[in-house]
Every structure is written in structure tokens, then in C-alpha cells.
Design goal:
Shape: globular
Strand content: under 5%
Distance between the termini: 14 Å
Helix content: over 70%
CATH superfamily: MFS general substrate transporter like domains
Radius of gyration: 21 Å
CATH topology: Growth Hormone, Chain: A
CATH class: Mainly Alpha
Number of domains: 1
Order of helices and strands: HHHHHHHHHHHHHHHHH
Number of helices: 17
Low-confidence stretches: 1-25
């Protein structure tokens, strides 16, 4: 079956959308065109997931909903964002990467636009929680891992660092703009901006993202014509996804990766991404200025995560993770005692920002080493699901602690201690424990 929106050329039996790519003189470097489009897609998805942090106070003012209610909707979205990942990775193998991404973009744009009509808390949970969570779940770190494995034989760490940094760039571009929109016009302009940006991606993915390098007559970047890329996992994608989880769950390395990524999610987009602007607001810092702090963190994360990819190609990923989680934990413990002055917040933004998601490239490398190229994207999807379970827990936990104590201080201190625990867990990972998690043949 051809990818959606294509047909066979009677002369050369090549889908027309791929003939467009074949006509361009990039050779193997066309892989970077694909990376650029996916980078933008990941950027927009990150903007969508960070939008509830900007909308929290405007929604509270507009509807009178408590922060625990708004945090619950954000938590549902983050949880489903992670849970959808491994199934999306299987769907990309079974039904096509481009088709899966296009459906996800349509779902994201539609759910965000539909939220403009909401009047009840459950409308918020349905649109910004359930639907946008499932849609954006297909356009996240698992998509980056699939592209890195499918299109690159070498330089995967660097490519994964670049694509992981897209979430930081999403903050850099979106948050100050969204915060300005929220400050001047409330929550609705924020929803409109996200819906428009998501819709604009659809034609780019449709025309510029072939299914595989072989679809346009290429080998993976860094490979020669004799390279045999990993074959897709065949059979029923739901059964395969669950079977790979069952087999990988029998290995200690999976649970170490899952635990560290749970803490990663708890200490990044779950707590900081959702509540930092509200925390700063409690300290008398305007939303736009607080969003600028997140944007500054995004600048340094763009540097740190890209650098992490380069380092991951060269050094022990366990030691890199230990350093990253240790710095993050100390930064979070420092924040409540910083006094929230300009220089103090700048120090926090630099040190925290440098490893916001620098953990992704070394975690993916450890997953590839332990589970193999063929099933690693799906296993990594389950590890990312742990990330989002942690993020969802922190999104709700932060709002609950704020309502119970009138302050975010304890929530950030607990997150910092968890970061230090993750640094210790990282060093327990045994790189000599490769295992076979290939699923048994399943009916299609």
C-alpha cells in the first residue's frame, strides 16, 4: 500500500511525493532535510505541551477554575503524550511514518481549535488533555529516535541531540510570544496560535518526508549501498508493542532507564515546564518576564543538548547522565532559596537550561546498545512513557502542593532530591546486558 496521498508513476513505479525528493541534488544529505522538517514538528509539539503553563493564570481568571483542575488537564495531556509514544513507534513501522505524523498533526490542530468553544473543566481535559496528548504523543522523542535510526548509520547521537533540542527551541520561540498573547488577550489567542502553527506543518510533512531512504533510492547517511537497515517489526502493532514491553520489562537495564527518565520528566516539563511561570508569578514576576526566563533556559538547552549528542558519540553515556542529573537536582534545590532576583534567576537558567533534556541522547544510546536497532525505538517509546508518567505526576503534584501549602518551595526541593537520586541510578546501568526482545510473530 502506498503512503497516503501518493500514486504510482506508470513509468517508474515511484510515488510522486518521493519523485520530488529524488529530483533534488542532496544525495545522502537529504536525510538532513527530513531532520529539519521533523525538528519543526517536534518544536511545534513542544510548544503545544508548554502552552498550559502560559494559560494557567488566564484560565483561572477567565473561568474561576483552581490550579489543581488546570494542572489535572495538563497532567492528562502529558501522560497520554508519553503513553502514545511506543504505540506510535509501532504504527510508524506498520502503517507508515508519514501517515502517522499527518494524522497526529490533524488531531493536534483540531483539538486545539475545538478548545476555543470550551466552557466546562471537562472540555479542557478532553481538548488539551486527551486529544492533544494523543496527537502530540506521536510527535515527540520517539519520532526523533525513529528518524535517527531509519535515516542515519553514523552521527546518531548528534542528530538525536539536535532533535531533542527542538523542545528547547520550541520554548525559545513560543513561550515569550504565547505569554505576550496571554497577557494582552487571555488564553484564546494562545490556542489560536498553536492551532495555526500546527496546521502549517501539514504540507511540509506531506511533501518533504519520504517513508525511508530506500523510498528515494538512498542508503542511510554514513552508510554505503551494501548497508542493510533494520527491517520493520511486522504483524499486529498493538500486540507487538505490548510483547516488546513484556520482554524488555524482564531486564534490569529497562527499569533503570525507565526510573531515570521518570525523574527526568518529573524535573523538567512536568514541574518546571508547567509551574515555573506560576511560581514566578507568586514571587511578583510578570508572566512575560517569567516566560523570558524559560526562553533563556531554552537557549542554553539548545547548546547543552546538541553538545550532549556530540559527547554521547564519544563518551560513556552513564557518566554523562550522572553529571546531567546531578546538576539538575542541585539547580532545583537552589531555586526556592535564590531570592528570585535577576542575577539569581539567570544563574538558575544557565545551569538548569544546559541539561534540560541533555539526557535524551545518552539514554537513546543505552537503549540501542541494550535492545538493538530494530526494536530500540519501541523500547525507547516505553522509556519515554516513563518520562511522561513522571511529568504528569509532577504537573499535578506541583499544583496540589501549591494549593495545600500556598507555595511551590517543597515541590521544587523534592524534585531536586529526585534528580540527585537519578544521578546515582545512572551509574548502576550495566552496559553488558544486551537482550533479545524481538516479539514472537503476530498475525497482521
Amino acid at each position: 500500500m502506498l503512503p497516503i496521498g501518493t500514486y504510482e508513476s506508470p513509468k517508474c513505479n515511484v510515488p510522486v511525493s518521493n519523485m520530488i525528493a529524488q529530483s533534488r541534488p542532496f544525495g545522502q544529505r537529504y536525510a538532513f532535510v527530513v531532520v529539519a522538517v521533523i525538528f519543526l514538528s517536534l518544536l511545534i509539539a513542544a510548544g503545544m505541551r508548554s502552552a498550559p503553563g502560559v494559560m494557567m493564570v488566564p484560565l483561572q481568571d477567565a473561568f474561576g477554575w483552581g490550579r489543581d483542575t488546570i494542572s489535572f488537564a495538563a497532567a492528562v495531556g502529558i501522560f497520554l503524550y508519553g503513553l502514545a509514544g511506543p504505540f506510535a513507534a509501532s504504527m510508524m513501522d506498520r502503517f507508515g511514518l508519514r501517515r502517522t505524523v499527518l494524522i497526529a498533526l490533524v488531531l493536534m490542530a483540531g483539538s486545539t481549535a475545538a478548545s476555543l468553544m470550551m466552557t466546562e473543566p471537562w472540555h479542557l481535559v478532553l481538548t488539551w488533555g486527551v486529544l492533544s496528548g494523543i496527537g502530540s504523543g506521536a510527535i515527540q522523542t520517539v519520532l526523533g529516535a525513529t528518524i535517527a535510526n531509519r535515516w542515519f548509520k553514523t552521527n546518531r547521537g548528534l542528530v538525536m541531540g539536535l532533535m531533542s533540542a527542538s523542545s528547547a527551541t520550541g520554548m525559545l520561540i513560543f513561550l515569550p510570544v504565547l505569554a505576550a498573547l496571554a497577557e494582552s488577550g487571555g488564553w484564546k489567542p494562545v490556542a489560536i496560535a498553536v492551532a495555526v502553527a500546527t496546521t502549517a506543518l501539514i504540507p511540509l510533512v506531506y511533501f518533504l518526508v519520504p517513508e525511508r531512504p530506500s523510498s528515494i533510492g538512498l542508503a542511510r547517511f554514513g552508510a554505503d549501498e551494501t548497508d542493510v537497515p533494520p527491517a520493520p517489526v511486522s504483524g499486529n502493532f498493538l500486540l507487538n508493542t505490548l510483547a516488546i514491553l513484556r520482554r524488555s520489562a524482564g531486564m534490569r537495564v529497562f527499569w533503570f532507564l525507565f526510573a531515570t527518565f521518570f525523574i527526568c520528566g518529573f524535573t523538567t516539563n512536568g514541574l518546571v515546564g508547567t509551574h515555573l511561570i506560576a511560581f514566578c508569578s507568586d514571587e511578583g514576576i510578570p508572566e512575560v518576564q517569567a516566560a523570558g526566563l524559560l526562553a533563556l533556559m531554552g537557549v542554553f538547552d539548545l547548546i547543552g543538548t546538541t553538545g550532549s549528542g556530540w559527547l554521547t558519540d564519544r563518551f560513556d553515556p552513564r557518566k554523562l547522565l550522572a553529571v546531567y542529573y546531578g546538576i539538575r537536582g542541585l539547580s532545583l534545590i537552589y531555586l526556592p532559596y535564590s531570592g528570585f532576583s535577576g542575577p539569581a534567576l539567570t544563574v538558575f537558567a544557565v545551569f538548569y537550561g544546559l541539561d534540560w533534556i541533555a539526557t535524551v541522547p545518552p539514554t537513546l544510546r543505552l537503549t540501542n546498545e541494550s535492545f538493538g536497532d530494530r526494536t530500540a525505538p519501541i523500547v525507547f517509546g516505553w522509556v519515554v512513557a516513563g518520562h511522561q508518567v513522571g511529568a504528569a505526576s509532577a504537573a499535578y503534584f506541583g499544583g496540589l502542593m501549591r494549593d495545600l501549602q500556598g507555595s511551590y518551595d517543597t515541590a521544587f526541593e523534592i524534585a531536586g532530591m529526585l534528580g540527585i537520586a537519578a544521578a546515582a541510578i545512572s551509574m548502576l546501568i550495566d552496559r553488558s546486558e544486551p537482550g533479545d526482545v524481538e516479539p514472537e510473530p503476530q498475525p497482521a
